[in-house]
Amino acid sequence: MNNTKKLGAAIIGCGTIFPLHAKALANLQGVELLAVADNDLSKAEQKGLELGCSATDDYRTIVERDDIDVVHLCTPHHLHAEMAIELLKAGKHVLTEKPLAANLDSARRMLEAAANSKGQLGVVFQNRYNDPSVHIKQTIESGELGRLICLKGVVTWHRDEVYYRSSNWRGRWATEGGGVLMNQTIHTLDLLQWFGGNIATVQGSVTTDVLDGVIEVEDSAHACIEFSNKARALFYGTNAYLVNSPVELEVVFEHGTLLQRRDSLYLWKDEQETLICDPASRSFGAKSYWGTGHFLLIEDFYNHIRENRRFWIDGEEGFKALKLAMDIYSSSKARS
Fold first, then answer.
1. Peptide bond into 246 cis (omega under 30)
2. Cα–Cα–Cα angle for 271, 275, 277, nearest 5°?
3. Which residue of 48, 68, 89, 299 has the fewest CB atoms within a 10 Å radius of its CB?
4. Among the three residues 126, 159, 191, which one is the final residue of a domain in this structure?
5. Residue 254 buriedness (CB in 10 A; 0-12 / 13-18 / 19+)
6. Domain GFO/IDH/MocA-like oxidoreductase spans what residues (predicted)?
7. Measured at the alpha carbon of residue 225, what is the angle toward residues 102 and 220, in degrees to the nearest 5?
8. Contacts for 202 with CB less than 8 Å, ≥ 6 apart
9. Secondary structure letter of residue 237 according to DSSP
């Protein structure tokens, strides 16, 4: 690709996550947002007016436009596959919000389309760009604290009836693909599998603790994940808390333990705790408990496109977190 060419971009889906993508694009050099789409035309037109671009309620018009190189999918989960496949067949680069798809079959079709496309498929797992996540990964790979022994991830957030009633696709198996595992905690599942490596076995269960009768899916889940390297991860996630607490991560090595609290990372070693990284706030408009890596990921995706390099969080990487969530559902069903 010509590195001097300005890249034309579009965003499909003008919901909750839309502003982060729009703001990132506005701050990227050599990128122009040309179109937005939403099945609610008035919502798309409002965003188009605000951002100075065209608006439509039919995403297929974006598929047909030769001036659009990159398309961001910020749509409900069940729409990712259909849209991504059409866009990839047209040679577009596609950056989709998590999860990759609402089910494994749809995800596999996306991978196939990406393999046969001139365009790239990227998945938004922005927490891999958080400073603590980067440091943890580097520590694992360097071996400086010895062998990885175990790790845990805890997510205690709040989603109530109003949240689910506000969008009719949420809380339904057919459209969301699951509950807390698929929407809120899949980022933490992704980090656990990214840190731990190849997964050997998964045991877990899902429950609906406080939203029974409101949603079809689970609001709470836990899992024990055994990795091929003999490390073990414990996971707990829930939407049944009454506040949105920061994600908690703990990674235990032979010679020390790394603990993430909010956006800071601490090392516990030799009976002493040391602050390892305390990143400056760069939320870029994101809710603090989401993590702050959206801009970095989006910028990196465009850099890979310009340099004709394969983006490292591609469809195959996105498939891993989806597969882990589905394995937890399967384990829970087998236990019931």
1. no
2. 145
3. 89
4. 126
5. exposed
6. 135-258
7. 55
8. 223, 224, 225, 226, 324, 327, 328, 331
9. E
- The pLDDT > 90 percentage for the chain reads 92
Tell me the pLDDT tens digit for each residue of 248-297. Answer: 999 999 999 999 988 899 999 999 999 999 876 554 444 454 456 899 99
Which position has the token pair 């671009």? 53
Q: Is residue 263 part of a domain?
A: yes
Q: Are 147 and 253 found together in one domain?
A: yes
Residue written as token pair 């599998």: 193
Output the domain CATH number for residue 151.
3.30.360.10
Radius of gyration of the chain (CA): 20
Tokens at 227, concatenated: 């990795």
Mean pLDDT across the stretch 17-46?
A: 97
Instruction: Judge contact between 12 and 75, C-beta under 8 A.
Output: yes
Phi, psi of 73 (to 5 degrees): -100, 110
Place of tokens 């498939």: 319
User: Does residue 208 sit in the same domain as residue 95?
Assistant: no
**Starting from the edge strand earliest in sequence, which strands make up the sheet with 93-97, in order?**
54-56, 31-37, 7-12, 70-73, 93-97, 121-124
